[in-house]
Amino acid sequence: MRRQLHLNLFIQSRGHHEASWRHPAASELPLTDIRYYIDLAQRAEGAALDSIFLADQLAVADDVGQAGRTWLEPLTALSAIATATSRIGLIGTASTTYTEPFNLARQFASLDHISGGRAAWNIVTTWAVGAARNYGGTGSLSHADRYQRADELMDVVKGLWDSWAEDAVLDDRESGRYARPERIRAIGHAGEHYAVAGPMNLPRTPQGRPVLVQAGSSDTGRAFAARHAEAIFTAHMEKATAQAFYKDLKARVVAAGRPADGTLILPGLSPMIGGTEQEALRRQRELEELTDPEVGRKRLSGRFGGHDFSHLPLDKPLAPEDFPDPGSVEAARSRTEVIVGLVRRDRPTLRQLLAYLAGARGHFVFAGTPEQVADLIESWHRDGAADGFNLMPPVLPWMLEVFLTEVLPILRRRGLFRTTYEGTTLREHYGLAKPASRWS
Ligand SMILES: Cc1cc2nc3c(=O)[nH]c(=O)nc-3n(C[C@H](O)[C@H](O)[C@H](O)COP(=O)(O)O)c2cc1C
């Protein structure tokens, strides 16, 4: 059998294009209506996709006036989705900087129990500067501090997940013994940032531990991913950088003492599909006509930690000097590297750059026929750029449906993607081992 692709559906707004929420083919439902998310999850599950993913920001964005993105709290939404689905993996975002480890351990363990072993946590340190104002208002932590805290937090969360042995629960009505206290132990963590006694107040979960996902691609982010992540989301605008990232990450995972295939690398892909290439390009142009460059300018500023780009003319070619050095950015550092790299290579005008970023915020955007999209997916997968993809349809549910009905059958004919689920847990879909229990 050929090495299988892994496909995750990233659900955000009414699609990933900045103007998707206004598009006539986008869902009619309000963005706060759980039926919208359930419908998408069920479509993805009907096609045996590995998982769905909900991102999260902990503050309202500056462009809220013209950008349809509201954030149902991911774990609450995924708990509802869990009860309306039975197989698909459920990846929720939660912040290490603004959440206590005991809360995180319980919430994701609960979702793993509720979903019967389908939970995953997208571990973020939260780059958005506005979030700090909602959590005590003491200002954002630096990039390095956020990751350092996150590392300690991961020790605590994993310790809590492991604090119950698999056989700790007896639930024996006859004898009156519910659990075996000798098979439940405290963790006694006392570190620089956290003091957590444990144990957790919940038995070990169906997957042993929920799957760990991570999406930081800076040097510090990669080191963190190599230690913890079992799936990695990443943004690339060209195949060559995706290949370099893949090679580097797999080497780091091995150096961290983990097997290379214990971490799946899933770059973002936003395909606009048409019956002909011309039709796909026309569809893309129509979406671009709905965008407002001033929304893009605000978003760009957010990525660079609030840097002011208001003086830059829209139609003059950009130079790397128009941007702060990514190494000095405390916000979304690796995405700023992607953006400055593109400017260095292609010298777009600000208008052109913003139009590209409007597509999927710096992820790979492609317009073509189903055959061309399948070729692209196959080539990245074959040539060491991806273990699968984080699918980011530009308009939902429209382009998801086109992908599922037009592109997936081609991938299946090529033996690259399953027709039905073989397992029931996300670990099984991803081909990941169940973590060994720390109990003998
Ligand atoms: C596909 C994808 C999804 C992400 N989702 C979130 C999110 O929901 N919330 C968040 O705060 N950051 C999110 N991020 C940002 C990363 O977690 C990370 O903070 C960012 O890439 C900057 O970290 P770095 O400098 O180590 O790359 C996402 C990144 C990617 C590629």
Question: What's the layout of helices and strands?
Answer:
Layout (H helix, E strand, L loop, with lengths): L5 E6 L22 H13 L4 E4 L19 H10 L5 E7 L5 H15 L3 E6 L5 H4 L9 H19 L7 E4 L4 E3 L9 E2 L4 E2 L14 E4 L4 H10 L2 E4 L4 H17 L8 E10 L3 H12 L4 H11 L29 H14 L3 H11 L3 E5 L1 H13 L5 E4 L6 H16 L12 H5 L10
Helix pairs in contact: 2-3, 3-5, 5-6, 6-7, 9-11, 12-13
Summarize this structure as a short list of keywords or feature phrases.
440 residues, alpha/beta, 8-stranded parallel β-barrel, two-stranded antiparallel sheet, 14 helices, 13 strands, globular, binds flavin mononucleotide
Q: Any overview of this molecule?
A:
The protein is an alpha/beta fold and 440 residues long. 39% of the residues lie in helices and 14% in strands. It has helices at residues 34-46, 74-83, 101-115, 130-133, 143-161, 219-228, 239-255, 277-288, 293-303, 333-346, 350-360, 370-382, 398-413, 426-430; strands at 6-11, 51-54, 89-95, 119-124, 169-172, 177-179, 189-190, 195-196, 211-214, 231-234, 264-273, 364-368, 388-391. Strand 7 and strand 8 (195-196) form a beta hairpin. Helix 3 (101-115) packs across helix 5 (143-161). The chain is globular. Bound molecules: flavin mononucleotide. The site of flavin mononucleotide has 24 residues, from helix 6, strand 10 and helix 10.
